[in-house]
Design brief:
This protein is of the alpha+beta class. It contains two helices and two strands.
């Protein structure tokens, strides 16, 4: 049986999950729901009308069953992008967002998720 540091080093060197893609059409219902939640006017919702900036986060979501969630509200098994380590904690290391064109009602969106780098952290935050 390997020690914890050796196990962590092996994960850092070898653990690379495959990228995951998901696709969904942009529909009006989530926009109406978010506008209502924030007590904001509902934007135009005809086919071809643009979403407000950042409202794309309403789409292409993972929707696990409640029974599959842990105490922290995340998938109990860690999902695809949490390494197989004991006493692991989730950390979001960063991301990029680029708007090349407006996202519009009726568009087909594809989300691609991938692990760019794995790094074992030491100390109070890792």
């Amino acid at each position: 049986m390997s020690s914890a540091p050796e196990h962590f080093a092996a994960v850092e060197a070898d653990w690379r999950p495959e990228p995951v893609e998901a696709t969904e059409f942009v529909t009006a219902a989530p926009v109406r729901a978010l506008a209502g939640l924030f007590d904001q006017p509902v934007p135009a919702l005809g086919v071809g009308d643009p979403l407000p900036p950042l409202w794309h986060w309403l789409y292409v979501l993972d929707r696990p069953a409640q029974a599959d969630l842990g105490e922290d509200g995340h998938p109990r098994d860690g999902g695809l992008f949490l390494p197989p380590l004991p006493d692991r904690r989730r950390m979001f290391g960063g991301g990029r967002l680029e708007f090349r064109a407006p996202i519009r009602i009726g568009d087909l969106l594809t989300r691609r998720s991938e692990v760019a780098r794995v790094r074992v952290r030491h100390g109070g935050s890792g």
